[in-house]
Amino acid sequence: MAVPARRTSKAKKNKRRTHYKLTAPTVKFDEATGDYSRSHRVSLKGYYKGRKITKAAKAK
To answer: Against a cut of 0.70, is the pTM above it?
Structure first.
């Protein structure tokens, strides 16, 4: 029976997994603000699902 001569390091073990891939974030067009924003997040202008939720953050 084959026995490894040395222990496999964590760095080498973790590089074996090739099914981890980067995915592009989902972006939608918000008709209330006219901007593109990420899904399920409050926009920079304070809108969520077309309704005003919070006050807009002021840029310095």
So the answer is: no
